[in-house]
Amino acid sequence: MVKATAENAAIHTPQKGTPKLEIKDVGKIFKTKSGETTALEKTSFAINEGEFVTILGPSGCGKSTVLRIVAGLEEATSGQVLLDGQEISGPGPDRGMVFQSYTLFPWLTVKENINFGLKLKGASHNERDNVARHYLQLIGLEDFENHYPIQLSGGMKQRVAIARALANDPKILLMDEPFGALDAQTRNIMQEVLLKAWEESKKTILFITHDVDESIFLADSVYLMTARPGRLKKKIPIVLDRPREYSVKGAPEFAKYKEELLSLIREESLKSI
């Protein structure tokens, strides 16, 4: 496999010590009219500071359930989630969230959407203005700061959603198939935009996707889930140079990762039929 350069490794090698995020024996059982459904069997893994992790698996495997538990939007039936060693017990500003659906406030401009969390925190006008301009430049929307969401394309809306999440300076960024509703061309561009933002912010990211190419292109490690009831099947470290260019998707090393993941996902998908 292609080895990361010493310079890039220095930027992205996770810090030693306590993991940024720890999932410890987390399970989830949903109550239904006919009984109970186990969505997630006891699952454990850890993510280090500055690491970009993608979770991949067949439909209905519980990957979004894991993310919602980390976000504090779902309560685990068993186990615990620790962020910087502290147990998560509900939603909080220490976790930024980007969903597949466009969640911008339609009555606010692009700039106002990015600044929304900072305004709630009581940040000064100058501070909010500086932060907004920084992220508008980062996502390439400096000329759209006074536009409203209805005036933006889907890709633009998601760029703003990412900028809004990062502007709040969360400890970890949680992303639930954020590019799933976009066309293929826009999706590829958004992957590169996200990597650029990650390179700049050095945030820890947990990213849910069903797209194999996307999971490999973005991640330091891919966590593969089994069919429902979901659990961690395999962790696959992605050893490809950073910063990554779109052209890496045509590399033989990339194809090997893709072949392995597709085979594993097919194996799990057949179990659910």
Automatic annotation (TrEMBL):
Could you give a GO molecular-function term held by this entry? ABC-type quaternary ammonium compound transporting activity
- Catalysed transformations (reactions): a quaternary ammonium(out) + ATP + H2O = a quaternary ammonium(in) + ADP + phosphate + H(+)
Q: Which PROSITE patterns match?
A: ABC_TRANSPORTER_1 (PS00211), ABC_TRANSPORTER_2 (PS50893)
What's a Pfam family this protein contains? ABC_tran
Q: Where is the ABC transporter domain?
A: 21-252
**What is the protein named?**
Carnitine transport ATP-binding protein OpuCA
The kind of enzyme this is, by top-level EC class, is: translocase
This enzyme's EC code(s): 7.6.2.9
